[in-house]
Write a structure and sequence with these properties.
- By secondary structure, the chain is α/β, with parallel strands linked by helices.
- The protein has a single domain, classed as Rossmann fold, CATH 3.40.50.880.
- It contains 6 helices and 14 strands.
- The strands form 3 sheets. The protein has a 6-stranded mixed β-sheet, with helices on both faces. Strands 6-5-7-10 form a 4-stranded mixed β-sheet.
- Helix 1 packs across helix 5.
- Bound molecules: glutamine.
- Glutamine (GLN) binds next to helix 2 and strand 9.
- The site of glutamine (GLN) has 12 residues, from helix 2 and strand 9.
């Protein structure tokens, strides 16, 4: 009898859930989602995107990667309460089962314990051990480059643009995402940028972050899909030029 031919392994597919895509989406943060989609498509990896807005509950099972972008204080206020009341349980479940969660700027702030705007304190979901305080001082604005070590090997550079009034401080259970090479980072003082706890990552880098840092987009895809092997290489000449331009803008 002929050997039965082995069943091919199912092609991987990345399921992304964007939180508040209409409210938390400044500085072209939507480009981050497009970048994930294209880099999956170009490799024959399936991709699906769902958005979830105010009032919609969040399933902790339906996505491999959850994303929350940046927003104005006003929009953050709306989202903070919804995030805590309607979505925190689902997000916590997703993180516990190994999903990746990426928060950018205003989204990053809401993943922490709190964002204090004077007397008014917005409670976050506490998935990162960070606290943010809105300062009366100048907004921290400009190009930024940070050095990041997400895996073994030499550190890599993330380059982008930051614009935030909040100053973020890390607690003992968060590690910084990176060390500031140029720019302000979390608070303009301690030279740390972003925060990380396992697969939960927060950063102030907009810009948009992923089109300027293709390597990080690939790290997110690979991690969210639990792929051990590196992803197939792509023709990244344009992406490398974008990365180099962002680094040059930050003086690195
Ligand atoms: N509103 C927040 C701040 O100013 C976040 C801004 C943003 O997402 N760019 O700190």
């Amino acid at each position: 009898m002929p050997e039965p031919s082995p069943t091919p392994a199912p092609a991987p597919a990345l399921r992304v859930c964007a939180l508040y895509p209409d409210l938390m989406n400044i500085y072209a943060d939507r480009g981050n989602l497009l970048m994930l989609e294209r880099r999956c498509q170009w490799r024959g990896i399936g991709f699906s995107l769902q958005g979830t807005g105010l009032g919609s509950p969040l399933s902790g099972q339906e996505a491999d990667l959850y994303y929350i972008g940046g927003g104005q204080d006003r929009d953050q206020r709306l989202c903070a309460e919804d995030l805590r009341r309607v979505k925190a349980a689902g997000l916590t479940e997703a993180v516990a089962r190994g999903a990746v969660l990426l928060g950018v700027c205003g989204g990053y702030q809401l993943l922490g314990h709190s964002y204090a705007l004077g007397e008014d304190v917005l409670a976050g979901v506490g998935l990162l051990d960070v606290r943010t305080v809105r300062s009366d001082g100048p907004r921290l604005i400009g190009n930024v480059a940070i050095e990041v070590s997400l895996e073994d090997g030499p550190p890599q550079v993330l380059a982008g643009f930051e614009n935030h009034g909040g100053r973020t401080h890390l607690g003992p259970d968060a590690q910084p995402l990176g060390r500031v090479l140029s720019g302000y980072g979390n608070n303009g003082v301690d030279r740390f940028e972003g925060a990380r706890a396992g697969r939960v990552i927060g950063t102030y880098l907009h810009g948009p972050l992923l089109p300027k840092n293709a390597w990080f987009a690939d790290w997110l895809i690979r991690t969210a899909l639990n792929l051990g092997a590196p992803l197939a290489p792509l023709d990244d000449r344009l992406e490398e030029a974008a990365h180099a331009a962002a680094r040059r803008a930050a003086g690195r």
